[in-house]
Design a protein that fits this description.
Strand content: 5-15%
Strand order of the largest sheet: 1-2-3-4-5-6-7-8
Distance between the termini: 25 Å
CATH architecture: Alpha-Beta Barrel
Number of helices: 13
Helix content: 40-55%
Number of domains: 1
């Protein structure tokens, strides 16, 4: 079976199951990774925001990558998140991922003191030079509080290993216009995240979609991604509408908290949210379960 090209199609982002001390459950992680390979996703995004990368030590992140590489066995590309507060730490993570056998890297500009555009450029320049793997820029202002200007993305696109950008959903809703501007100025492959916008982004012509839901219910995500990528508007919209109650939970409670409820409902194993994050309970948990139940009963 041919391996999907990098930074295209549906990229599924699983959780990284860990205990209360942040130790990764490698057996459970392998099971989750194998489910995604069997479902036919186009790539797997390990140690993304859903994969709690910011809460894990370097050693645990290395263990997760080694486990995933051994499980994937070349079936689908493995894209590994290497975001870190310090540039030298991100460089080390890039080298670790490459040594373990990852196919590509994904990096958000993690910071405490807000970064300038020049500081972000120098951060990416240094980290991209630490590894020969292709790198996707992770523009996630919701967690990093940093937004990439178009000028910065154009500068980054000239670095030899930077090939793609993962964008938040367009604030004004003009996906086609934003895609055209990004492609004209950068030439990068452009993907989006924010699952409730999956249909819109792919129908507008995005190269990829980076999906939280794809990491736990890959068939549901693929039911949107496949027709949307093929330009089948009616089928994509129908599949998207069926997921509307779950999208509402994502927006209200945060997709990471919702995914841990789904993990428990699907009986895929036990994992704990990293403190200080707390699991959903009471009416919020009930709402998530009510939203997902029709999807499970329909097969």
């Amino acid at each position: 079976m041919p391996v999907s090209p990098l930074f295209r199609g549906l990229s599924a982002f699983p959780i990284t199951p860990a205990d209360g001390e942040g130790r990764v459950d490698v057996e459970m992680l392998a099971r989750l990774i194998d489910r995604l390979c069997e479902a036919g996703v186009d790539s797997i995004g390990l140690l993304g925001s859903t994969g709690i990368y910011a809460y894990l030590t370097r050693d645990e992140r290395r263990r997760a990558v080694e486990t995933a590489v051994a499980c994937v066995r070349g079936r689908v590309p493995l894209v590994v998140g290497i975001g870190a507060l310090r540039t030298d730490a991100a460089e080390d993570l890039a080298r670790d991922a490459e040594a373990a056998g990852a196919d590509a890297l994904l990096m958000a500009p993690v910071s405490y003191t807000p970064l300038t555009q020049d500081e972000a450029f120098e951060h990416y320049r240094a980290v991209s030079a630490a590894s020969g793997l292709p790198l996707c820029v992770y523009n996630n202002p919701g967690t990093t509080h940093f937004t990439f200007g178009l000028d910065l993305l154009e500068r980054l696109s000239r670095l030899p290993t930077i090939r793609a950008v993962k964008m938040p959903l367009p604030a004004g809703g003009d996906g086609a216009g934003e895609l055209a501007a990004l492609r004209e100025r950068t030439g990068l492959l452009v993907g989006y995240s924010g699952d409730w916008g999956m249909a819109d982004a792919l129908l507008a012509g995005a190269d990829a979609f980076y999906s939280v839901l794809g990491g736990i219910l890959p068939a549901c995500a693929l039911s949107i991604a496949r027709p949307a990528g093929a330009g089948d508007v009616e089928a994509a919209r129908e599949a998207d509408a069926a997921l509307s109650p779950l999208w509402d939970c994502f927006r209200r409670f945060g997709s990471l908290r919702v995914i841990y409820v789904l993990l428990d409902r699907l009986d895929l194993g036990a994992a704990q949210l990293p403190r200080p994050l707390l699991p959903l309970s009471g009416p919020a948990r009930d709402e998530v379960l009510a939203a997902v139940e029709p999807l499970l009963s329909s097969g």
